[in-house]
Design brief:
The chain has about 70 residues and is α+β, with helices and mostly antiparallel strands. The chain has 3 helices and 2 strands; from the N terminus they run H-H-E-E-H. It has helices at about 1-10, 20-25, 55-65, and strands at about 35-40, 45-50. Strands 1-2 form a two-stranded antiparallel ribbon. Strand 1 (about 35-40) and strand 2 (about 45-50) form a beta hairpin. It is globular, with a radius of gyration of 13 Å. The N and C termini lie far apart (about 35 Å).
Length: about 70
């Protein structure tokens, strides 16, 4: 995983190797790539599939504004 993160320059957020699918199951992740956002209140929002930078920025803006 460290090589992937370095090769693609995606070190700005957490990456998880869920080898047994336990975390996927908890958060309802059914495919990769997936993004799971958890706000300060514990509300979970997920996006299944890739995200363009502007979509990711919009999601973060939404979470920060609530």
């Amino acid at each position: 995983m460290a090589v992937f993160v370095d090769d693609y320059g995606v070190a700005g957020f957490e990456h998880v190797a869920d080898l047994h699918g336990e975390i996927w199951s908890v958060f309802g992740v059914t495919a990769q790539p997936s993004y799971v956002f958890i706000d300060d209140n514990g509300e979970v929002r997920r996006h299944i599939g890739g995200m363009q930078p502007e979509d990711l920025a919009a999601e973060l803006d939404f979470m920060l504004s609530n």
